[in-house]
Amino acid sequence: MSRDVRSRLAAQAAAAGYPPDLLALIANATLPAYQPGQQLEDTQIEQVTDAVEVLAQAGYRADTLAEHIAEYQRRHGSDWRERFWARALRIASVRYSRPDTYGLSPCEIDPDRLAQHAARQPAPPSAARAA
User: Fold this and answer.
1) What is the DSSP string of 44-104?
2) What's the chain's Rg over C-alpha atoms?
3) CA distances from 106 to 18, 82, 96, 126 (A)
4) pLDDT given for residue 117 in this prediction
């Protein structure tokens, strides 16, 4: 199973635009006992994959995520993870429930949501002229 969970994490990270070095930071934010370079077990990889999906749905970009996490660490001390994830989950929930406003997550794989969202999108200008 290890290869499957690692492949899923790699696919979700790529879809979100999160480079491999950022995954270590996400693992640290997700798994309090994580040490950089540590080999993760399948269940831990699944948790990091879920974290990537939440962060992508919440709209956290690769170029600003480290700053957001550092700010939470500075402002909230030992409670930073709880506060960071509570906010990320709230934002992700709002964005998930309003795809017409925020768009779908780059990690979205549900075929029904993808089809529904595509059906509501206007045709690109070049497609409209060709018709």
Assistant:
1) HHHHHHHHHHHHHHHT--HHHHHHHHHHHHHHHGGGHHHHHHHHHHHHHHHHHH-HHHH--
2) 17
3) 11, 24, 11, 24
4) 60
Smallest CA-to-CA distance from 68 within 31, 22, 111 is with 22
Question: For residue 124, what pLDDT band results from cuts at 50, 70 and 90?
Answer: low
Predicted model pTM: 0.82
What pLDDT sits at residue 98? 83
Q: How many residues does the chain have?
A: 131
Q: How far apart are alpha carbons 115 and 117 in whole angstroms? A: 5
Of residues 65, 57, 62, 61, the one with CA closest to residue 99 = 57
User: Which is more confident, 44 or 111?
Assistant: 44
Distances (CA, A) of 11 to 5, 19, 29: 10, 11, 20
Cβ contacts of residue 90 below 8 Å, gap of 6+? Answer: none
Alpha carbon distance 57, 84 (integer Å): 14
Closest of 55, 1, 59 to residue 25, by C-alpha: 55
